[in-house]
């Protein structure tokens, strides 16, 4: 860092409470540092603020404090046209560090060009950060990062549910935008994994409860967003991901393997939509010849044997696929990124012993984020940084039922400015790319909003941006999305 500015407290009140671990918990307070980064060949100076801001209940009483890191480009005086990106990770229970020092922030975790851990642990400049075109705040929900409830008596139901989460975060963002004087700015939400559920719901909640309207929402490796796809459709939809992964590991027949991935996947997608899903609707009444024909095609595209496909009645569970694809080579493959390999105690079994990719990512991210926040951004605390927080049980029933896909559609309908971009990695087996396309197709059954929806695919996994090649492409796609969604001066929001 070039210079450290003095630590200061919001307003004139310094509030501290004690957690169950007897470690100091700040309700308000922040520290700001100055730095610069070279992005796309140009020097970008910025201020980085690491701090806390309270969550208030309906009576205005603080019930939690959220940790955040806020980056502002310091050579831009007029913020009225400067986009503000509000970034969330998922889990629920995942810290914001993944996109913070993995994707869009000015510093990047030290990994190799494909995303694997390196030593010494730490960070380096991110020449692809989007800070050249937008300011960014990374928000840690309760029990992620350094964010906590003020004491153990606060009901967990205030925070740990699909819509409870959306409600308190919208209130928190209202205060944050007011404190930072960003109401005039164009605003964007970006979420990864369960963070896509979060931001899809926030798009409508911010409009309806806080009268805050957005220009864009970016869904990185999205969940199902509550969009129905059970039974035969759900089973069929995984095949394109299986094909992509089998292609990567060179398990497809030679005629397919010699083609580029972009040439293989459209063929598999068309088979999935036009043949496999309709065939699976017949279940046990499918004709024997038809079943054998379908099994042969599934085996051809998945890299599995026809025998195991038939043993599973044409519907291959993802956990079995991760165990089976490279069983003959003595490896299991990763769930969130199926390029990663693991070694199980036994080659037998129907699921991997552990998540090879997640272990690898924690290996590099946990030391890096702790070093960066404490030593570079000068945020001092003895609190443990929860890279994977304690947020269970997470309520998804009743008032917390997931309707976030429908909420996002409603937000788009109400706001003609609002556009959505989806980003997916082909080798992500948890939130696979074809189901992300399915989301896009089914968010708006009328088809009237489809010109404001787009999907982008990359040759990585859940965190596709860990690959250097995908980092360049995906951040450029964000820049293009911003450019497209910033209205011209005096362009009204109307149909």
TrEMBL record:
Say if the entry is tagged with keyword Signal. Answer: yes
Alphabetically ordered keywords of this record: Carboxypeptidase, Glycoprotein, Hydrolase, Protease, Signal
**Does this entry carry the keyword Glycoprotein?**
yes
Gene Ontology MF annotations: serine-type carboxypeptidase activity
Query: Which InterPro entries is this protein grouped with?
Result: AB_hydrolase_fold, Peptidase_S10
Which Gene3D superfamilies does this UniProt record tie to the protein? alpha/beta hydrolase
Q: Name one GO biological process term.
A: proteolysis
Q: Which Pfam families match?
A: Peptidase_S10 (PF00450)
Q: What is this protein called?
A: Carboxypeptidase
Q: Organism classification, top ranks? A: Bacteria, Pseudomonadati, Bacteroidota, Cytophagia, Cytophagales
């Amino acid at each position: 860092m070039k210079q450290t500015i003095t630590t200061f407290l919001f307003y004139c009140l310094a509030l501290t409470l004690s957690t169950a671990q007897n470690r100091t918990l700040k309700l308000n307070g922040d520290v700001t540092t100055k730095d610069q980064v070279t992005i796309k060949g140009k020097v970008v100076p910025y201020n980085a603020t690491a701090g806390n801001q309270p969550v208030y209940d309906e009576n205005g009483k603080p019930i939690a404090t959220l940790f955040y890191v806020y980056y502002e480009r310091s050579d831009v005086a007029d913020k009225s046209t400067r986009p503000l990106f509000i970034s969330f990770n998922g889990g629920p229970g995942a810290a914001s560090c993944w996109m913070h020092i993995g994707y869009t922030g000015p510093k990047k975790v030290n990994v190799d060009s494909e995303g694997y851990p390196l030593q010494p642990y730490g960070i380096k400049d991110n020449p692809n950060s989007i800070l050249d075109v937008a300011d960014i705040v990374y928000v840690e929900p309760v029990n992620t990062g350094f964010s906590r409830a003020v004491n153990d008596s606060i009901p967990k139901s205030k925070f740990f549910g699909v819509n409870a989460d959306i409600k308190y975060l919208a209130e928190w963002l209202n205060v944050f935008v007011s404190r930072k004087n960003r109401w005039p700015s164009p605003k964007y939400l970006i979420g990864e994994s369960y963070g896509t559920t979060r931001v899809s719901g926030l798009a409508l909640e911010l409009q309806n409860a806080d009268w805050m309207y957005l220009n864009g929402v970016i869904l990185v490796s999205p969940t199902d967003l509550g969009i129905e796809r059970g039974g035969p459709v759900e089973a069929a939809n995984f095949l394109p991901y299986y094909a992509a992964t089998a292609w990567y590991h060179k398990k497809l027949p030679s005629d397919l393997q010699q083609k580029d991935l972009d040439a293989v996947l459209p063929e598999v997608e068309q088979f999935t939509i036009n043949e496999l899903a309709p065939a699976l609707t017949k279940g046990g009444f499918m004709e024997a010849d038809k079943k054998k024909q379908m099994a042969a095609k599934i085996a051809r595209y998945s890299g599995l044997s026809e025998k195991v496909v038939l043993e599973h009645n044409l519907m291959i569970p993802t956990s079995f696929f991760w165990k089976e694809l490279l069983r003959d080579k003595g490896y299991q493959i990763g769930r969130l990124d199926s390029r990663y390999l693991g070694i199980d105690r036994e080659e037998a079994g129907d699921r991997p012993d552990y998540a090879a990719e997640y272990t690898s990512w924690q290996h590099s991210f946990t030391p890096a984020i702790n070093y960066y926040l404490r030593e570079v951004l000068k945020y001092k605390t003895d609190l443990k940084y929860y890279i994977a927080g304690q947020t269970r049980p997470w309520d998804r029933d009743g008032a917390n039922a997931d309707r976030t896909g429908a909420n996002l559609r409603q937000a788009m309908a109400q706001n003609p400015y609002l556009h959505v971009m989806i980003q997916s990695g082909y080798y992500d087996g948890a939130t696979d790319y074809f189901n992300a396309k399915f989301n896009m197709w089914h968010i708006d059954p009328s088809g009237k909003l489809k010109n404001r929806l787009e999907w982008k695919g990359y040759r990585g996994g859940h965190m596709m941006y860990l690959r250097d090649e995908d980092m360049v492409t995906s951040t450029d796609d964000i820049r293009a999305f911003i450019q497209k969604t910033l209205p011209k001066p005096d362009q009204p929001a109307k149909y």
